[in-house]
Amino acid sequence: MAEAARYTEEIVDGGASWYAVRLFTLRLEDVRTFFREQGLECFIPEKYIDIEGHNGRPRQVLRPVVRNLIFVKQLADEKLFRKIIQTANYKISVLRKSKDSQEYALIPHGQMYEFRLMCNPEITMRKFLSSEEARMKAGDEVYVRFGPLKGLSGRLVRSSKKYYLLKEVPGLSVMLKVSRWCCVPVEKKK
């Protein structure tokens, strides 16, 4: 429980949007180090997996959910960010608004804040999906009013006879198990 609280305290909504950066290399940690050396904040969704330890006993270690995606907090100067991307010694690409556009797709700060909270590795009842899989899940927009996920919003979907709160960002989606009784529908804007 202390781990979960510490993770939540580390996630701060600074009001800046985020870029989704696709990697064409398996050197995820090197790319993260490169961005950090440039003074950029990064986020990589991670989960615990069991591996065999030196003594033959299983132990848990944090591993990235996907190896080809990293989220980078937006700089005030997009030209500087473009220059950083061009100087990288790694084959990377920032997700764009559309195939024809040169504009980078930005993930709004509120949506990314909730996504990072939902990626807490201490939460066990969670599923990660590709963007295509998430689009196949039908569900209503809801707001969680009660329980440990209070304050989060997303789509309520059903999978394996359980209800989940689905949060989508470009390139990846996450679902957290939630009781549908804790959720209320979000009023649609006219």
From TrEMBL:
The reply on keyword Transferase is no
Extract the InterPro entries matched here. NGN-like_dom, NGN_dom_sf
Q: Which GO terms of type biological process are on file?
A: DNA-templated transcription elongation
Task: Extract the coiled-coil ranges from the record.
Answer: none
Domain named NusG-like N-terminal: residues: 17-115
Its signal peptide is: none
Q: Which residues cross the membrane?
A: none
Sorted keywords for this record are: Transcription
Looking at the record's lineage, which domain of life comes first?
A: Bacteria
Name of the protein in its database record: Transcription termination/antitermination factor NusG
Source organism of the structure = Prevotella denticola CRIS 18C-A
